[in-house]
User: Fold these one by one.
Assistant:
Number 1:
Amino acid sequence: MHGKTRVLFSVSEIYPLVKTGGLADVGYSLPHALHRVGAEVRVVMPAYRVALAQAQAMRVLAWTEVQGAGRMHNVRILEVQQEGFAFPLWLVDCAELYDRPGNPYMQPDGHDWPDNAERFTVLARVTVALATDALELGWRADVVHANDWQTGLVPALLSELPERPKSVFTIHNLSFGGHFGPDQFYRLGLPRHWWAVDSVEFYGGFSMLKAGIVYADEVTTVSPTYAHEICTSDAGYGLQGVLQVSRHKLHGILNGIDETLWDPETDVFLSAHYSARRRQPGKALNKQALLRQFDMHGGESAQQVPLVGMVGRLVEQKGIDLVLAALPDWFTRTQARFVIVGSGQAHFEQQLRELAALHPQRLGVYIGYDEMLAHLVEAGADMFLMPSRFEPCGLNQMYSLRYGTPPIVYRTGGLADTVFDASDGHVDEGIANGFVFDELSPHGLSDALDRALACYAQPRRWHALVRTGMNQSFGWEHSAMTYLALYHGQPVMMNE
Ligand code: ADP
Ligand code: GLC
């Protein structure tokens, strides 16, 4: 490759235009990190209604026709110059497929959009056209970097071409497979020879995630531990066999965080700032603001009693059921207060609301999505709960560490790679930064919370723990260099 490596990054969500979780944070921050280490980056995503509403300067780059499910679509490629973006963003504009309210994947009633197979096949086809300069824009990619099932067909479609850019496919979450039936396969006009066990066929249907794994030149996932876990039947979702035979090209590369957006010294969502060197009064002021948000600032001791925060999708993956099972016991046995911000499955939302109504001074709940509140919880809580059953990488625990809010996590995936337990000795040695438990049950979690509360009661130990986390570096630079090495076909040595 000569000069700068040209990378087309294809992804289904990008902060701040559209975000349902950590994928959007990575969709923003990884391309920027690649740009900083010298790649020439373009990013492509569907022009969802919410994204168009926020897009700033925009021009039409090209018109094209793209094959959908038994029909052709007229598609425009929009180039967006967005404040905060170091390079142009390409949006795939097709009103029939993307101009809809709400979530990129789900209807307002919580069911998947029925034409998701078509919506993301069109995204994949346009990605390939842009990468190979089939639209004659004068830009051709050396590498296409696709992400999760929504872009899984990209490496597969590229593999059909005689001359093509290299493909890298990143798995952010193996539990979303992009599985569809044979009817869709034929209507989408996908190559017949893909209907095979060593291709995209999967239990009588086909899997877009499997397509990415099988056909990409390199497959990565977002932490070294998760790279191991997904090769086992416990975490492989039926794809462990394919992943095992792909082991030679599977790499675990830990996500970074955007250290500008998530910095307690400058965070635009906070009114009080602080740093590792000078935590107070900033941290305490955020705690006050957070307690006030939830009307939990009553009582003289409100500021003194430990405040435990949690932010996340309210689904089983995140262990919210364990928290719900343990909370009543925590209310009786401890003094701690809790704030939980999230949205997800209706029955978890409902149980949280009911519990908060019963214990308004002990539990504050916000059901919904609120970026400001997510930052305030990281800054204002004393400790952060993240008992995920599985966690490919997890960003929230890294945000917590940076904000001086030690995380309490189950030993899995990226949590195991970033959080080090405060067992005796480790705190003084400056190794420990949080609390890790091994028994996935309300009891295992309670045990870890008890240890965290006991540590909190010993200010010297607690401050040492907080300081270790705040002084760590979670930036992208190392991982971005690793991706660059992978793009260049150089050996990557971090996944064993
Ligand atoms: P996942 O991608 O599995 O949801 P991560 O920890 O990687 O988990 O990333 C979650 C991201 O989504 C974080 O930036 C977090 O702050 C954000 N987030 C999750 N739920 C909410 C919410 N209800 N309101 C605001 N931000 C949220
Ligand atoms: C997924 C995973 C999460 C990861 C994020 C970004 O949503 O669930 O663990 O941090 O992707 O890679």
Number 2:
Amino acid sequence: MPKTVLLFLSLLTWVGSTIGAVTYDEKAIIINDQRRILISGSIHYPRSTPQMWPDLIQKAKDGGLDIIETYVFWNGHEPSEGKYYFEERYDLVGFIKLVQKAGLYVHLRIGPYVCAEWNYGGFPIWLKFVPGIAFRTDNEPFKAAMQKFVTKIVDMMKLEKLYHTQGGPIILSQIENEYGPVEWQIGAPGKSYTKWFAQMAVDLKTGVPWVMCKQEDAPDPLIDTCNGFYCENFKPNQIYKPKIWTENWSGWYTAFGGPTPYRPPEDVAFSVARFIQNNGSLVNYYVYHGGTNFGRTSGLFIATSYDFDAPIDEYGLIREPKWGHLRDLHKAIKSCEPALVSADPTITWLGKNQEARVFKSSSACAAFLANYDTSASVKVNFWNNPYDLPPWSISILPDCKTVTFNTAQVGVKSYQAKMMPISSFGWLSYKEEPASAYAKDTTTKAGLVEQVSITWDTTDYLWYMQDISIDSTEGFLKSGKWPLLSVNSAGHLLHVFINGQLSGSVYGSLEDPAITFSKNVDLKQGVNKLSMLSVTVGLPNVGLHFDTWNAGVLGPVTLEGLNEGTRDMSKYKWSYKVGLSGESLNLYSDKGSNSVQWTKGSLTQKQPLTWYKTTFKTPAGNEPLGLDMSSMSKGQIWINGQSIGRYFPGYIANGKCDKCSYAGLFTEKKCLGNCGEPSQKWYHIPRDWLSPSDNLLVIFEEIGGSPDGISLVKRT
Ligand code: GAL
């Protein structure tokens, strides 16, 4: 054959195999005409830095993943209406291209509602103020905004040729997120919204299938998928759809005030093997790498760390034995792929709680031997051979004979990551004065106003100010029985200052963000200045109509024990100031921090509302870095102008950290660590945010802490 013809022919086959359709049948997703058993893992691009991405993706590949799954974070991409941002940590196309370069597929979950413990579930805040809007229902303004954003993302992907049919890595895409339960609660408008967004997605003609998770009524051709700790019993809504698990929770998130959940690798592996032996064909770990909620990106009371006990830890290091155990599982599953995609299982009970599932086709045979007993190891006989099955485990036999993997037998060494202190810092401080009602940057309004409606979430902070006049005839001035100040706030945290002195701080929790401040306060004759700093700790990301939940001091605000009885100040005229002075001065930037006079001196006394700054040299080596903030209470951290996130070691993890066994059904409350300790004491500093020397570290402390106790740590 002449050379040119040969070249043409090989080019043809090359094109045929790379630019391929993605379809599905009852067995699996079909890529380039092949049914595939696919292992996927979530890595959310804005939760790490672009410099970290290649390594994370490589570690995912080495861990046996075929697909990287990510949500698309609308509020990161369109922070104000019509102004888009796709740079740095939000370089979505760059991230997808790196995945492609590594030879992996992408599942793009556009949402644009994402939940994800992400601020406002991914919705941009301006959306809240679109006239006539109601989120996630049959509402024209909402649908228009959603369609515009989804279309923008899809068009961007097409332009960059990122869909598989264009030769790109995207093989799947998700619309909405866990809408089923909402639809069930709101009824008819929910149903028509579902119909609408399904059709809207299909009309975008991406060339690859769309999925909807936790949505039983996903209309054809969309595939409904399962989320949970286990999904073996899930059944897609049509027999011709494959069984897909979009979120196998590899652990769970930490909330400020909560302990740190973990999920034993044996149980994660067991859940995956069980799903696969029950005809599952695609499983995604939510999350494979959780990362960090930098800046103000975390949802209500969600910690800055989004470690999640994932196979790759927050800092980008592999977590053993979880990562290695799952890698070995993936290898075993992959060696069963030919049998899994071509045969239906025959099920035989080998004992009371033991079963064999055999996938046998003309050319392949794979078997799964399961022991569902939560405490007993059992010897079974399978095809005339004896097998030992540990409790709550599945053995995988890719040739129906030899066990290559058992989910409860971890053959990988475990190690404990350590935070090694490297150095402490010398600090300068700058006092943030409680706001004054008479300053230029304050506004007044009749009554108490919802926080986010004023701040538009540009800052966590809003001052509520009031003058309290005390007449010389007030009885308490003589008796010394101070009046009781009561402040009711919808959340999330409140610092009350009287005449410039911190009177107290109260904070809510993820379960109940609302708070009440109630204290007898030392008032003097004349005008007393009440300044209350109301602080949001992330906006809610989940719950029915979470987008409408309030924050801030909504009252009543009363003073009890006066001559007149109780004074209700709720309807008074209040003064408001948005944000901190230090924020408007950009104290966390080089320029801003040089614009004010900082004080050197003893910092042993815990001071509320204080800015601290220091500079430091980057330590040698390439171990990930962090800050041990345990000596501080609550605030925010910036390195070279970049926000590391909120810190809150003052919030102690409340919970029961009992010993936990891998065997038996897992829930997010089953295996907890860190009880009685700060929910989060270490804060990740990405190395690529540092220069070799003179790194500017700025901290804003709200309640009072000892910065001398802060240390730079490396994770080894
Ligand atoms: C799911 C949700 C995810 C994430 C997860 C909990 O219900 O779809 O976005 O929030 O829960 O970590």
